[in-house]
Each structure stands twice: as structure tokens, then as C-alpha cells.
Specification:
By secondary structure, the chain is α/β, with parallel strands linked by helices. The protein has a single domain, classed as TIM Barrel. The chain starts with 7 loop residues before the first strand and ends in a 9-residue tail after the last helix.
Length: 294
Amino acid sequence: MGRNEQALIATCWTTAGNVRPDQVDNLSRWRLEDRIEAAARAGYGGFGFWLGDLIAWREQGGEYGALCRHLSDAGLGIVELEYLSDWFAQGERRERSDAARAELFRAADALDARHVKVMPPFSNQGWARAALAEQFAALCADAARHDLLMALEMTPFSDLPDLGSALDMVVQADAPNGGLLIDIWHVVRSDSAVAAIADVPARFIKAVELCDAELAMRGSITEDTMCHRRPCGEGAFDLPGFVAALARAGYDGPYGVEILSDAFRALPLDEAARRSFDGAARTVGAIAPDARNQ
């Protein structure tokens, strides 16, 4: 499949329906085929898969080749896979992570995936940044054999809690196919400056995610993250400033759209796809072509 790098990606939770990523039972009740078609009808150019949904697809007799043909028929040329955790760990955690890595790479080969989302150590586990950089460099070298980008998502509830610390780690790793996934949600909630994104070298920005919300956090960080995001244009985030800063940094890749909220999860599939796409398309389209030169 060809990769239109300017497209919007329907990330996996945006089309998953009424399930939460942080719950044990987090498999979508909607068929992957229906989700792909809804994303295409809405206007998306890319689609994101949750590893759990892919494993369930295979266990039910599905083949990645058929899924690839379905994506191609729908015109969805960019594929994102989510996510890999514990790539830095040891013992049983690392064994589970390595099994997930193998399945993600198998899916990536079959689906011609662009990138895999990579998670830092959650809950402030105390990992040294140099050790993470060494493991991330090794992970990226492994992924390079599959023509994959590895996009580390900075999250405020992790050992890489802000833009500066996450950037420092990937710079230390210095992998050509490794860098950051910059999600406006985590930028705002970590108190990182949106304008500072303009100073991130473009080579270290591998993926981007959009959503909206109120500026004030509601409840715990977990509740806020999982329950109160909104489609672009329906909150108070500085989305135009975010996209303009990325343009000044030189980023010209796709934008994922990730909406995690109780209200959004209750929407019918087609409405969720259309509403999420329309808000994000207005956001990205509102930036003048010469924004990177301002």
C-alpha cells in the first residue's frame, strides 16, 4: 500500500467503541472490517490496530493478508500498531514483551505498517535514562529489519514524564528509525510548553496525536486520560499552536486522532469516525502552508 504521509490516522481507540484501554476486557465489540470501512467513509487515510484485537482476529481464523486487502480496498494506506511495553524490562515481563514484539513485527510485515507506538516505563519505575536509551536503540535496530518506525509516546505518569526527558532519551539512543510520538494530551498534562515542540529536531518526531479537552484536569490523571478527552475543536487546547509548532519543527508526517472519553465511546461507529475526523481535519487544515517559515 502507498503511504500518504499527510493523512489523518484513525487510532485504534477512536474506532473501538465502548471499551477502555486500561481495563482487562478491552477488545472492541465491533468487527475490524466495519471499523476500517467507517474510518474510510469518514475520510481517514490511515488506521490504527490494537495488538489485542489483532490477536483475537487471528484466533478467530482471520489472516493478516485478508486484513491487508481490506485496508487497500478501503484506501487506508497508513497503518499504525499499538503498543509495545516492557521492552526495557527483565524476566517474565521481558518475555511477554518479546512475544508481543514478535507478533507486532509479524503484523507489520503483513500490513505494511508505518510505525509502532512504544510506551515508556509507567508509574515512575525509576529506570535510568541511559539504560532506556540503550534498550531503545536495540529495539529500533530490530524494527529496522521490518522497515518500521518506533515512536515512543511521552506520558506524564512515566519515567519520561515530559517532552524534555523523552527527547533526551531518544537523542541518546540516536536510532534513525526511532523517535517520539508527540500527543497534545500528554504535552498539556505534563505542563510542557506547546511552543517548545518547534525546537524538537524533525528527525526525532516519528508520529503525532490530536485530541481536545478542557485545560483543567478532571479527577485523577488516569480518570482524566481515559474519560474526558474530546474531538478536536470541542475543548480548550491550543490545537492551532500545536500544529503550527510541529510545522516549524519540520514535521510533515501523519496525524493520529485519539479520542478517549466516556461520552465518545458511547457514539455509534460511523458518528464516532465522522465526528473525530471532521474536527481534526479542520484543525490541520487551518494552518497556512507557510506556517513552518513563521
